[in-house]
Amino acid sequence: MSGQPASHMPAHVQAHDIGATPWYVRALLGISAWLAAVLLLPLLGWLLHQSVGYSRFVTLAVAAGCCAVSVPLLRVRSGDFLQQCGAALSLAGLIFGIIEGSWPTLPHWLWIGGLAAVMYAAGPVVVHRYLCALVVLGAIVIVMVVLELTLPHADEGAAAVAVGGLAALYWLAQTWPRLSLRSRALEPMAIVFVLGSMVLAWSLHRGPAVWLCVAWPVGAWLFFSRAVPDADAAWYRYRMMLAAILLLLTPAWLAAPGLAIGLGWLIAGFALGRLVLLGSGGAGMLLYLAVYYYQLDTSLLYKAFWLGVCGLVMTGFALLATRLDKAFR
Amino acid sequence: MICLVAANWSELGRFVRLGGLQAILLIVALAALHPALSPTARSLVLLLASMLLGALLALVGQTWQTGADPWQLFALWAALMVCWAVAACSVVVWLAWGAIANVALALWAQTLADADVWRALLAFTAFNIFALAMWETAWRRLGWLRHSAGPRVIASWLLGVLACYTVLHSIGEPILALRGKAGIALACWAVAASGIAFYYLRARRDLAMLALVLVTVIGVLTVHIALWLDWGGGMAPTQVGVLALLVLAQGALSARWLRRLSARSAT
Q1: Which DSSP category does B174 fall into?
Q2: ipTM
Q3: Least confident piece of the model among A109-118, A218-227, A256-265
Q4: CA within 20 to 30 Å of A72's CA: A43, A215, A216, B200, which one?
Q5: pLDDT for B188-241, tens place per residue?
Q6: What is the pLDDT of residues A16-36, one digit of tens each?
Q7: For B218, how many CA atoms within 13 A lie in the half-sphere containing its CB?
Q8: DSSP letters of A132-173?
Q9: Dihedral through CA A295, CA A296, CA A297, CA A300, nearest 10?
Q10: Which helix (H) or strand (E) segment is B21 a member of?
C-alpha cells in the first residue's frame, strides 16, 4: 500500500489530474464568482420585492430564471468575464432558491437538487460545476437525513453510501477507456461526492454502520479487479489476493465506519493511480480519527481496543503485502 | 494508544505520566536515527517527536503550574523544536514549526491591551515576512527546501490573516482610514502584498503567489469601495449591482493577466 501507486497505472488515467486552466486561475475565478453571487443576492431580492412582491412560487421561478439566463454566459467559449457573470448569476439563483424557499419539504429540495444538476450539465465551467455539485450533495443529504420522515430508514449511513456509491460508479467507469472519455465532465461531481461520503461517515455510530462496512470491501474488490485489466496475470492475482485480505478487515470497521470509508477511497486511489482519491482518503481517515476520539457515546477503552485491532490487522496486511509484492516481482 | 492512555489518565501518577511520555519521546527520537529509514519516514518520525515535545511541555506545565502565560509554552516549544526541524530537513516539519510560532504570536497578542494591538500586527507581519525571506534565501542552496508549497502556505497565511483583519476592522471606519487597527492592518497588508507580488513577479516567478495577492487585493478593494458607497448608511441596490460587476471585472482582468503571464512563461 505504501509503494509508488502511480507507477503501475495506465498513463491515460494519470493524465486526468492535469487541467488546461491553471488551478490558481480557477481558484481566483471561483472566489470572484462567489463574492459577486453574495452581492447579487440582495439586488435580486430587492428587484423581486419591488416588482411582484413576495410569493414563494415567484421567488423560485425567478431563481430558475437567473439560472436560465446564466447558461449562455457559462457556455461562452472564451472570455473570463462572461463566464464569471454566468457563474455568479447561476449561484445567486441557486442560493436565492435555497434561502427564499427553504421550507422543509421533499418537492422543494428535489427541485433545488434537480436545478443544480441541470446547471451542472449546462454550465461547463469547472468551478461552477464544483459549486453545483455541492448544492446537489446538500439536496441529497437533506432529502435523506433531514427529511427522514418522508423516506423511511434513511439516515447519515444511507446518505453516505448513496453518494459514495454514485462516486464509486464514476471511478469504476474510469477503468473502461470508452466510458472514461465521455464521462470526464462528471469528475467534479464525483470528487465532491467522495468528500461528502467521508464527511457523512463522521457522524455514523456502530449500529447503522454494519451494512455499510459490508458494502465497502465489495467496492474495494471491484476497484482492484478493474484497476489494471490488461496487466499480467501475476499482478492481477496479487491484487485480487490483497482485495480478499481486505475482506478480513470488515469486522474491525464496525466500530469506526469513517475509517472504512476513508480507507476505501484510499484503496480506490491506489488502484486507479489518482492522487485526488489517495489524498482525500488519507486526509479523511486522519480527520475521522480526530472526530472519533471525541465521540462521547463510545468509551475510550472500546475505541482503543478496536483501533488496536485495526492497527494489528493492517500491520499484518502490510507485511504480507510486502512479501507478496516481492514474490510477484 | 492515545485512547488507551486517555481512558486511564486519572489512574496514572504524575511521575508515570511524565516518565511514560519522556520514554515515548526518546524512543521516537532514537527511531529517527535508524539508518534504514527513508528521508520521508525520518521527517515524519521527527515531526512526531516535535509534537510529543509539545505534549511533554504541556504536561509539565499542567503538573507544576507556574502561572506562565500560554504563549510562553508555545514559544518555548518552537524554540526547542528548532533542532528537530534542522535535523529533519523537511518542508512539513518547518511548516509545523512556523505554525507553532504563529500560535505563540497569536496567544501573545491576546495578552496585549487594545491600544497595543499594532505591536502584534507588526510582529506577525515581520515574523512571517522574515520566514518567507529566509525560505527564499535557502531555496537556492538547499535542495530539499525547493518545494513551492512552503512559501505558498506562509504567504497564504500572512496575506489571508492581514486581509481579513483589514476587512473586518474597516467596517464602520472612513474609507482608507490610516488610523487605528484598520489603518495599521491595511499598511501591513499593503507592504506584505506589494513585496510578495514584486518578488514573485521579478525574482522567482510564481503565478500562484500572484493569484493569491490578487485575491486579497480584490477583497480589500471591494470592501473599501463598498465603504465609499456608504455601506453602513444603506447602499442602494443598484450600487450593490455595480459592486458585483466590479468584483467580476477585477476577477476577469486578474485571470487574463495571469493567463498572459503563464503563456509567456511557457514560451
Answers
A1: P
A2: 0.77
A3: A218-227
A4: A43
A5: 999 999 999 999 998 888 899 999 999 999 989 888 888 777 765 666 777 788
A6: 444 467 888 878 887 887 788
A7: 28
A8: HHHHHHHHHHIIIIITTTTSTT--HHHHHHHHHHHHHHHHHH
A9: 80
A10: helix B14-31
Beta-carbon separation of B251 and A301 below 8 A: no
SS3 state at A301: helix
- pLDDT score at B74: 92
Q: How far apart are CA B167 and CA A242, in angstroms?
A: 53
Sign of the CA dihedral running A102, A108, A109, A115: negative
- The answer to whether B133 and B151 are in contact (CB under 8 A) is no
Query: What tens digit of pLDDT does each residue of A248-257 get?
Result: 666 666 667 7
Enumerate the residues of chain B whose CB falls inside 8 A of the CB of residue A21. Answer: 259
Give me the residue from A32, A42, A299 closest to B248, CB to CB. A32
CA distance A180 to chain B (A): 28
- DSSP label at residue B144: G
Question: Of B78, B220, B214, B212, which is closest to residue B149 (Cα–Cα)?
Answer: B212
Out of A28, A36, A80, the one facing B214 most closely (by C-beta) is A28
> For residues A310 and A252, is the Cβ–Cβ distance under 8 A?
yes
Backbone angles phi, psi at A20, to 5 degrees: -75, -45
Query: Dihedral through CA A26, CA A27, CA A32, CA A33, nearest 10?
Result: 60
Whether the CB-CB separation of A319 and A258 falls below 8 Å is answered with no
Closest CA to A101 of A92, A111, A88: A111
Q: Are A268 and A171 in contact (CB under 8 A)?
A: yes
Alpha helix (H) ranges present in chain A? Answer: 11-14, 23-51, 56-74, 80-100, 106-122, 126-141, 156-173, 177-182, 187-202, 210-227, 233-248, 257-272, 275-293, 300-328
CB under 8 Å to A27, separation ≥6 — which residues? A127, B211, B215
pTM of the entire predicted model: 0.70
Mutate to test the interface with A, among B247, B258, B265 (most CBs of A within 10 A): B247
Q: Residue A231: phi, psi to the nearest 5?
A: -75, 170
Please give the interface size between A and B, counted as residue pairs whose CB atoms are below 8 Å apart: 100
B201 vs A48, which has greater pLDDT?
B201
The mean of the pLDDT values for chain A is 74
> What residues of chain B lie within 8 A of the CB of A87, using their CB?
none
Mean pLDDT, residues A126-144 taken together: 87
The amino acid present at A107, given as its one-letter code, is: P
| Residue A160 CB contacts under 8 Å (≥ 6 apart), including other chains | A196, A197, A200, A201, A204, A212, A257, A261
What Å distances lie between residue B161 and A179, B173, B216, CA to CA? Answer: 44, 19, 10
Of A27, A36, A300, the CB nearest to B248: A36
Asked if A304 and B3 come within 8 Å (Cβ–Cβ), the reply is yes
d(CA A226, CA A312): 28
Q: Which residue has the higher pLDDT, A82 or B132?
A: B132
pLDDT at residue A305, as a whole number:
81
Largest interatomic CA distance in chain B = 69
Tell whether B106 lies on the interface with A, counting CB pairs under 8 A.
no
The answer to whether B224 and B182 are in contact (CB under 8 A) is no
